[in-house]
Specification:
The chain is mostly beta strands. About 15% of the residues lie in helices and about 40% in strands.
Length: about 90
Amino acid sequence: MAIKSIENLKTNDVGNSNVVVCPACGKATEMKLFAFTDASMVAHLLKKKQEGIAVCPKCAAVFRVNPNYMEQKQLGTVCTLEAHDLSPLDKRA
């Protein structure tokens, strides 16, 4: 997700995931989940979906969460986070 401006971003602590094996350190842990939404009026009118990240508490690795998982979580559906739902964030500055 390319962020051009952070002034309209709203961050929500979504809680913890189920126990999942971290792709970076290989340890089984509950990931800390955060959701980012664009708080601008245009995004609200377009009902923009949440972007999600997960942070491993063991090694501090940060991952982008599969948008389908975040959509299900946003709807309140009980869902299970799996290692294939996590992709490393781009390390470019």
